Amino acid sequence: MKARQKRLIFVGLALVGVAGATSLALSALQSNISYFFSPTQVMASEHPTDAVFRVGGLVVADTLERQPDGLTVHFEVTDNAAVVPVSYTGILPDLFSEGQGVVAKGRIGTDGVFYAEEVLAKHDESYMPPEVADTLQTAHVDGVVEQTTASMPAGSKTQ
Amino acid sequence: MIPELGHLALILALLLAVAQAAFPLAGSLSGNRPWMTMARPLAYGQLVFIAIAFLALVEAFLTSDFSVLYVAQHSNSLLPGIYKISAVWGGHEGSLLLWALMMAGWGAAVALFSRNLPLPVVARVIGVMGLVAIGFLLFMLLTSNPFERLFPVPPEGRDLNPLLQDPGLAIHPPMLYMGYVGFSVAFAFAIAALIGGKLDAAWARWSRPWTTVAWVFLTIGIALGSWWAYYELGWGGWWFWDPVENASLMPWLVGTALIHSLAVTEKRAAFKSWTVLLAISAFSLSLLGTFLVRSGVLTSVHAFATDPERGLFILIFLCIVIGGSLALYAWRAPDVSEGGRFDLVSRESALILNNLIFVAFTVLVLFGTLAPLIYEAFNLGKISVGFPWFNKMFVALAPFLALILGIGPAARWKRDEPWRLTKMLWLAFALSIGVLVLSSLPASSGNDFWVPIGIALAAWLLFSHLTILRERLKHKKRPTWEALKADFSGNGRSFYGMVVAHLGVAVFIVGVTMVSNHQLEKDLRMSPGDSHEMAGYRFEFLGAQKVNGPNYRADEGHFRVYRGDRQIADLHPQKRSYLGGGMPMTEAAIDAGFFRDIYVSLGEAVGDGDWALRLYYKPYVRWIWLGAALMALGGAIAVTDRRYRTARVHSSAPVPADGVRA
Questions:
Q1: Are residues A75 and A11 in the same domain?
Q2: Distance from CA of B208 to the nearest CA of A (A)
Q3: Domain boundary at B518, B537, B566, which?
């Protein structure tokens, strides 16, 4: 076989591989991404009803209730403009607490409660998920963000 | 005073880096020998000054000098001594300093172990490393000075994030950085070769051991990180496809492609431009990873408190490095002569497929990691890519890689006969099919589709490599064992390193397959005295009590685990609350075993002495890290190959002056 033919075969194989991989990857992506919605958007029913999505904000103080089975918890998440009730069964992450930022992944039930499959809090307590920080700003309540930052000991950005 | 000394040392190191970039490079281009000979002393000087800065920071941590902002943020007087040292790289500024220290260390190592290289090559390599060092030192001095003072001085530090107070994480970042930074050597060799216009087999032989060592460190670093996440985060996962993990995986994937492509370049003088491109990519992806971690553009469980200014700086640096090296590549690569020709059935072809798969996987990981940014940029909404997507991509590509991996090392360079390969490997293939059938029997696998495939692929790797080994020893007229020993201590190190690393892949595949498909997990509420059965084990909860650690208070649960009537483990998981920051943390209790782990982590007290808790059964999970360790070991064995050393025999003689212009 001539060098050129060989090269053509390799290039062809590579192209087919890339095209195949890209289409597979993109189609698989569609079923594996989850969109983020703020409580305000959820209240305005902008969220999907048939797909998993994420909702995030601050956990409203004094709303965390443990149900009698010991594993299910109810709490409310707010962006300071609207509130979404959340139900989650399982172990909460270590850094989950009232007043802190949280992102929950799941679906909304017909009763308007968000049933979370997964609740995320972060490794670092001074860290705020960017989506949550964004929604809080759009809700024009910077005061709350400042307050949570100020309550941190020897803050990360004291200069 | 000492922190200022450290700061000064950093500034001096920057000046030295400027000199290190300027003189040797200029000298190598103009043929000015004295300038070129400056390369080595400058590289050593760089190491000395950065080491001084690093020691100054260590000293500030050991004496709990909270007038240094970085110390106040990441330490606490109660912190145990060993973690005061690891706290040095527990945050952004300090980890950058560690990075710079390692960069200087690699530079000095190149200066020390390059006696057999022509002086212009050494000058260029060290010069390029100086350029990279300028970027990092400027970054540190302009945006992230670890020696910044804090006034008024706080009485107590904020404490190191409790998750980082762990032996695994004390050594994970240094290993990882050794790998990241090590690719800068491969990068520097590639750029030096482009500048000199001399891309040949010798160049490949020089950069191979460096690349492999960097790859070994990166492998260990990633494996340690995975192991740490497994036992420390308390959710029993070993890989989360988190952006930060992906950031370390991408250079590893490209680096793996690179060490394979370098083999072709060395043995057959082929793939030269491609190899250079991979070397540039591996280092660029290391930088991109740093950018992603530090800038906070992506949601990540690892994110440090972030700062857009830093992100911008790294982005600019990244553009300069990638843009500059690609421009150089575009200018120089067309002159690179074509390498050795080869046929469709040959080892080169197998290695091309290897490279294609690794690069494809890198592109997929990169795409999945950046997809949230892409979607946001096009106003398509805020998304996150779930880890099932990454798993699917991995599972779609890995089997092909494993299949080729069994054939490639058996094939001959340049051209091979399909018939010869078939004759050689049919038995290994038949045995693997046998394993596939056996493990598909309902009793051994449940109804799962992937388990038999994974096991059969691992078996295929084992059998094919045994066949390849037998083929290699067939012609030696000695008993097999002795021939093996003689070959190993003779010229066979590269070969045996490869076999060990590839068997590591097989072990890894078994671990991943088993734990992904057969693990069990249960969240439940238990009262003292309750028992729960899972996977043939009975977990008895005896209750929890308060205990005090050096810098934390904890609730400690007590579990007994029985298999049948026999007690096999006594587990004490903890829920800690650290005194410094008040941060809560789960400390899981694990009964580790070669074939399975039993894992208990406490959730929360739910009243009356009851606890919400989580039980796991993790079959073969250790094999994942064992496999990674074997891969790293294989790399380490390969580096000791004689041909990387013999070249040094004629090295003590000074390089003749006519070798100046390459």
A1: no
A2: 26
A3: B518
Selected residue of B242, B299, B374, B599 to mutate for chain A interface (largest A Cβ count, 10 A): B299
Is residue B421 in a domain? yes
Q: Do A154 and B72 touch (CB under 8 A)?
A: yes
Instruction: Tokens 């693990």: give the residue.
Output: B519
Give the tens place of pLDDT for each residue, B555-568: 999 999 999 889 99
Selection from B432, B437, B440, B356 nearest residue B401 by Cα: B356
Segments forming the whole domain that contains residue B443: 417-518
Helix-helix angle B2-30:B39-62, to 10 degrees: 160
Radius of gyration of the CA atoms of chain A, in A? 22
Q: Is residue B635 domain-resident?
A: no
* Residue B538 to residues A18, B564, B567, B651, Cα–Cα distance (Å): 49, 8, 9, 65
Cβ contact B360–A17 (<8 Å): yes
> Is residue B484 within 8 Å of residue B474, measured between CB atoms?
no
pLDDT digits (tens, 9 = 90+) for B568-624: 999 999 998 888 767 788 889 999 999 999 999 998 888 888 898 999 999 999 999
Number of domains in chain B: 4
Does residue B578 fall inside a structural domain?
A: yes
Amino acid B296: pLDDT: 61
> Domain containing A2: what range?
1-28
Whether residue A60 sits in one domain with residue A9: no
Same domain, A119 and A51: yes
In Å, how far are A92, B131, B162, B231, B586 from B556, measured between CA atoms? 18, 52, 17, 16, 10
Q: Is residue A65 part of a domain?
A: yes
Residues 19-58 of B with CB under 8 A from A: none
Provide, as residue numbers in chain A, all residues whose Cβ is less than 8 Å from the Cβ of B398: none
With beta carbons under 8 A apart, name residues in chain A contacting B307: 157
ipTM: 0.75
CA distance B141 to B131: 16
> Which amino acid, B36?
M
Residue, of A147 and B463, whose pLDDT is higher? B463
Q: Which of B360, B436, B353 minimizes the C-alpha distance to B394?
A: B360
Co-location of B106 and B202 in the same domain: no
| Cα dihedral sign, B482-B484-B490-B491 | positive
Pairing of strands A53-59, A33-37: parallel
Of the candidates A25, A28, A125, which has its C-beta nearest B583's C-beta?
A125
Domain boundary pick from B165, B192, B225: B165
Q: Which of A9, A35, A158 sits opposite B344 (nearest CB)?
A: A9
Max distance between CA atoms of chain A, in angstroms, equals 76
- Does residue B646 sit within a domain? no
pLDDT at site B658: 38
Comparing B169 with A119, which gets the higher pLDDT? A119
Three-state secondary-structure class, residue B539: strand
The answer on pLDDT for B388 being more than 90 is: no
Share of chain A above pLDDT 70, in %: 74
